Amino acid sequence: MEWYVIDTVVSPSVGVCFSCIRGFKNLKLTIWYQADIFLAPGSMIEPYDKGVLINGKVYPITLYNVTRYNKELWICMKEKSLCPGSQSINNKYCNIYRKCMVSICPFGLLRQDPEDKITRGNF
């Protein structure tokens, strides 16, 4: 069964991502997961015995929960996400990288440390 990613929210304080996915008969679900890949809107997901196929490639994924999509809850999660990449504002820098538990920034934001050295993505 194929699922398509509609949107993704990152929770930097716990390092978990939430993706709204749509599948058979337009059934919408919210998945809670950790993975080495960011499920961008438009990505296609297919269950596989060693993880999932994402756009045709196998990736390991730790799936924590699957729930029925709730529009009001999703809007609340997006509004309360501290991740600057989850906001609709185009950010170049991450202002919370010291608190972020995500090992690689899925949005490719730059962090700026106290010595003004700029590095990309890896926190």
UniProtKB/TrEMBL annotation:
- Principal localization? cytoplasm
Q: Keyword Repressor on this protein?
A: no
This protein's GO cellular component annotations are: cytoplasm
Q: What's a single GO BP term from this record?
A: cellular response to starvation
Looking at the record's lineage, which domain of life comes first?
Answer: Bacteria
Q: Where in the cell is it found?
A: Cytoplasm
Where would you find the membrane-spanning parts of this chain? none
Q: What does this protein do?
A: Involved in the stabilization of the sigma stress factor RpoS.
Family assignment from sequence similarity: Belongs to the IraM/RssC family.
Entry protein name: Anti-adapter protein IraM
Q: What is the lineage of its organism?
A: Bacteria, Pseudomonadati, Pseudomonadota, Gammaproteobacteria, Enterobacterales
Gene behind this protein: iraM
